[in-house]
Every structure is written in C-alpha cells, then in structure tokens.
Amino acid sequence: MDGEVVRSLYRMLYRGAKRLDAAPASKALLRLPCTDRYDFSKSMWVDIPHLDSELDKDGKRKETADQLASRHLSSILGGGLLYRPQTSACKVLREAFRHPVSEPEKLGLRIDTGFVAMRVMSTVLSVADSVLQKPPVELHEVADSSTNNPIWCKTTGADLEVGSVLVAHPLVGGIFGRKLILLYDYEAERGASGLVINGPVTAEIALDNLLSTKPSKKDAETRRLDVYNGGPVMSRTERQGSTRKTPVRLNVLHTHGDLRGAQPVCPGLFVNFKREDAYDKYMQGELKAEDLMIIQGYAGWGPNQLEGELRQHTWFASKVEGVPLLIQDRLRRERENEEEKKQSGAGFVELSAMNDAEEMPWQKVLKGLGGEYAEMW
Questions:
Q1: Which of 98-102, 114-118, 162-166, 183-187 has the lowest mean pLDDT?
Q2: Contact, 171 vs 31, CB < 8 A?
Q3: How many secondary structure helices (H) and strands (E) does the chain include?
Q4: What does the pLDDT read at residue 273?
Q5: Which of 7, 270, 296, 306 is deepest in the core (most CB within 10 A)?
Q6: In the chain, pLDDT over 70 holds for what percent of residues?
Q7: Integer Cα distance of 99 and 67 in angstroms
Q8: What is the Cα 171 distance to its own chain's centre?
Q9: How does residue 333 score in pLDDT terms, banded at 50, 70 and 90?
Q10: What are residue 7's phi and psi, to 5 degrees?
Q11: 312 cis-preceded (ω within 30 degrees of 0)
C-alpha cells in the first residue's frame, strides 16, 4: 500500500517538476530560509542558532521530512537560498527517488517528504499562475549605433573584479529590488563597493557646484542635473531620528578617460575626476552635461560578505559589455520623463514610466544573459 502511495506521489511531483522546468520564472519563486548571517563585528559569516524542541516520534519524523525536503530543494536551488539557473527539477526528483526503499520507517519518511515537497510545489505553482501572467513586453535592445549589436552579458559565478555587474535576484526586495550594481572597488579581504546604476532620482545638483567654484560664463550656474541613488551608504545628510549630520558621497560616472583623477571601472567607463579638468573641458565644449551620471551614496560590503551573498544567490555576478550604453539609456529615459512632465503641465509622469526607466536596464541584462535568466524577470 505504501509503495503505491510513493509511486503516486512521484507521478504527481514529476508533473509539477515538469511545469517548473518549463517556466524558469516559477523556479525563481523557490527559496529557503537563511541559515547564516554576516557579523560585521567579526567580519565573517556565522550560523543562525536554532532552538531544539522535545518532539515525539511522529513529530521527529515530520521534522526529518522537512529537513530532507529542504535538502532536495537546495539541490534545485544549486546550493543557495534562491534559484540560480540552470538546474532541472525533474533531474533532482529522479535522483531523490532513484533508490527503492522497503523498510517501513524509511518508506514512511519518503512519503512524508513527498507530501512536504507537494505542499511547497503546489504553493509555488499557484503563486506563479497568479502573478506571472504578464503580457509580452517588448524590450528594445540598447545597441551600439556603429555595430548595431545588442549588449553582451555572461555570468561569472563567484568570480568578482572591478567592473563586475551584480544583478539582483528577482526575489530581492527593498532598495536593491531589480537593481544593477557596478563594482568600482573590490578586494575579498577588504570588501567591495559598488554603485546602483538604475536607481531612482533622489535630488538635483547645480552643474556649477559639481564642476567648479569658479564663476561660469555659460549655463553651468543655472543648469541643474539629476542625482541618482547609488546605495544606502553615505546617501543621506541626516540619520533618521537624529540631528547628527553624516557626509554624503557623490560619485560621477562618465566616459572621459582623459580627465585627471578618472578611475577606470570597465571598458569605456570611468568614475570621478579632478573638478578643475572637468570644468575646463566643459568650458571648451568637450564635456557635456549629458555625459555625466551623478550618483549619491553607494553599496558597501565587508570582507567576504559579498561572496556569501553570491553563495546564497542574492546576486548574479556578471560581465556586461556595454555598461556605458545602459547608463546612457537610463539617462535618456529620465530626460524623456522630464520632458513629458513639462509638456503635460501636470508636474509628474506616470508611475509606470518611472518604474520602466529604472527596471528596464535590469530586464535587459537578464535577457542578455540568455537561457533561463532571460525568462526570470
């Protein structure tokens, strides 16, 4: 009787696994709870303690079934807490049921584990059916006009370097939800720093204040540029609930590598410069305001913290050829929103247009990664 239950469970689970494999966005909804956390005081990852409780025999078997189901789910997730392509749910299921068992206790454990897996799978598929039914969206390729080639991307696993782009997992929420982070400083033993390159506009700055304190004969005195949020570190002038002032860090991404103080980040893109040089080039007409992406704040990680988040699959580390094109497209879309705001006379633009301007670069990189990544947005 128990053997027939196991076979029926397998058939039902296999049908569900086929649905998951056919829709990678559904697998992206799978997740496991955190088992460790980063301790900043020790600059290391530490296990999260779990309280043990007294359980009877049936309760102990149920707990074991939960743990066993979590282990198989971890195999689907590639060893992380969130799903990273490309793992077949059907393959993991076949491996889990590959060896027949006859002992009543092991057979009962397999049945309990199967029911736990059915509950998880049914929940995920139900959520997927309700939230992933979206109309097709045309993703206009950001292309280099000289070659007409779309942006090329590839995942780099756990390999990180200056210029790596971190792509947030679709389940990541909060300030990093659907964000791209460009690493401009990295060393495993020291930590990492990066800039969100598709964040929202949070402030404005006078171009004259950005480039120089010299009196300007051009429009630099009155020209104001958008300032984008680049991360939570050093991004506010005051701490919430306190009158204590905290410094704000402004970084400027640009394509002018001949400026003194320009730090290379990736091919064709640099961060910061000597203000005097930038001012002179602007006055000579060699530097345009549209060439600059001004970013307030940054994202920071302690020693080996980012590596742990990669193991959890919070981020997909990627190499992206064409980051300057992504940034130019982000700036262009914001200018279009500003123009629409002026023409409408309403003083605002539709929220969907604002979200598109922020999310489109993230979607394009996922699409550029190809395979299951292209279907996870």
A1: 98-102
A2: yes
A3: 10, 14
A4: 95
A5: 306
A6: 82
A7: 19
A8: 9
A9: confident
A10: -65, -40
A11: no
Strands 269-271 and 36-39: unpaired
Secondary element (H or E) of residue 300:
strand 299-301
Assess whether pLDDT exceeds 70 at residue 6: yes
- Side chain identity at residue 238, one-letter code: E
Amino acid identity of residue 375, one-letter, is E
Cα separation, 282 vs 288, in Å, equals 6
- The pair of structure tokens assigned to 365 is 């990189």
Length of the chain: 377
**d(Cα 15, Cα 94) in Å, to the nearest integer?**
12
Compute the distance between CA of residue 302 and CA of residue 153 in angstroms, rounded to an integer: 27
The C-alpha atoms of residue 88 and residue 137 are separated, in whole angstroms, by 26
Q: What is the pLDDT of residue 261?
A: 94
Any idea which residue has 């206009």 for tokens?
Answer: 140
215: left (phi over 0), alpha (psi -120 to 50) or beta: beta
Rounded-to-5 percentages of helix, strand, coil across the chain:
40, 20, 40
pLDDT classification of 49: cutoffs 50, 70, 90: confident
Report yes or no: 221 and 289 within 8 Å, Cβ to Cβ.
no
Burial bucket for residue 46 (CB in 10 Å: 0-12, 13-18, 19+): exposed
φ/ψ (deg, to 5) at 233: -85, 125
pTM, two decimals, is: 0.86
pLDDT tens digits along 23-40: 999 999 999 999 899 999
Average pLDDT, the chain: 84
CA distance 64 to 22: 30
